[in-house]
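Batch manifest, entry 17 of 40.
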Amino acid sequence: MKKLLMLFVVLNLLSCIKEKNSKRYYYLPMDDAVDMGFPFGSIVYKSTQKNSFEDILIYSDVEQYESDSRYILVEQRPNRKLMDKNIKDDLSFWSNYYVENKKDTVINVFGDKMSIKHINNLLTTLSEDNLQRVSDSIVKNNASLKSIFKNKLNYYLIDKKSDSLYGPMNKDELSKIRARKGVTLTF
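Output type: structure tokens
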């Protein structure tokens, strides 16, 4: 009996640890972003804890967000100005890191792998013009960023159960995927 009770306690603790470390989906509205000093607007992100932006799935500006137990629907108006700021801040941070530490590593810049030494070389003067040119080049050449800025409004469907993100897409594409998956959630 004691062994059975001990097994139950261990399994219960393991399930709590798993739940604590599992990532969840969160929506950060613009007002909350401003209140907490997050400079990149309203977003949808996935994280092990709220207000820890480990994995931003949908960038600013998230205009509508609806969720049920299975799905999340999102409407996004892409904000190039905030995306440029985000890219420039990341590039400046990594360039400064390289200058201070003289250690190179490969990082993920919006889905593309880049060496921080290469970033530093691109931004040798760290002038606003160089930063803007590099940011423009990243948006122009990055497939996921190009698809975000293709439409004035983008729509996304997140399937929480399968941990899948569909989008960006237009309204017609969203209607088709909602019908195919039987999603009744609406804005």
